[in-house]
Amino acid sequence: MVFSFQGFANALKWAKEMKEMEEELNDKLTFLGGFVAALRDHIHTDIQIKPGNLYTCTWSFTARSSIFKNMLDSDGCKAPPNDTITLPELNYEELESLLEFLHSGSLPKEKVEKHIYSLSITADKYDIPFLQKFCEHQMLGSLNSSSALDVLEISDVCSNQTLKETALNFIVKNMEDIVFSARFEAFALQNPHLTVQITRASFMDIKNRRNGI
Asked: Which residue numbers delimit the BTB domain (predicted)?
C-alpha cells in the first residue's frame, strides 16, 4: 500500500508539472504571437530606447504591453526613426535584458539571476503579463534563505499575493537563518511593515504548531 500510494502521489505531481509546462508554453506562444497583430497593423518603425543607444521596432513594445502602446501612440511614434522613449528606472544592462525578453520570450540564466528583481518591477509597472509570470516562476524556483527577503520585498512592491505568501511561509520556516543574517537588519529598517508581517506570521506558526494544526 505504501508503494502504491507513493506511486499515485508521484503520478499526481507529474501531471501537475505537465499541466504547468503546457500552460507556460501556451502563454509563451500567445506572447510571441503578438507580433502577428503588430505586423498586420504596420507598427514597425524603429525607435530609440534610453538609457543608452538601443534601438528596437515599435511593434516589439506595442505587442507586449498596452501601456507601452499607449505611450507610443500618444507620442506619435508611428513616425521618424529618431523618436525615443525613456525608461528611467532601468540601467543599460537591465534595459538590454528587457528588450531581449520582449523579442524572444526568454533570457539566459545569468541575466535572469542578475536582473530578475528589476525586470519584475518593470513587468508590473508596464503591465507585461508574460514577463510577470516568468519572473514569478523564476523567483519561486530559486527561493532560498539568501533571496527570501528580496522576493518578499518585490512581491509587496508588485502586489503579488501568491509570491508574497510563499516568501512569508519560507521565511517563517527558516527564521533563524534569515533573521540573524546581515541582510535582515537593513531590510527591517527599509520595510517596517513587512517586518511586522513576518513577526505576526511567525507567532501564528508557533501557535498553530502548539495547537497541532
From this structure: 61-111
The 10s digit of each residue's pLDDT in 182-204 is 899 999 999 999 999 999 999 99
Peptide bond into 51 cis (omega under 30): yes
Contact 171, 188 (CB under 8 A): no
Count Cβ atoms below 10 Å from residue 45 Cβ, excluding itself. 15
Identify whether 63 is part of a domain.
no
Is residue 194 within 8 A of residue 153, CB to CB? The reply is yes
User: What tens digit of pLDDT does each residue of 19-35 get?
Assistant: 555 566 555 555 555 55
The candidate with the shortest Cα–Cα distance to 47, out of 90, 3, 78, is: 78
The answer to the question of residue 200 being in a domain is: yes
Identify residue 174 by its one-letter amino acid code: N
The DSSP symbol for 85 reads E
The CA–CA distances, whole Å, from 4 to 8, 9, 10, 16, 63 equal: 6, 9, 10, 18, 48
| pTM (two decimals) | 0.72
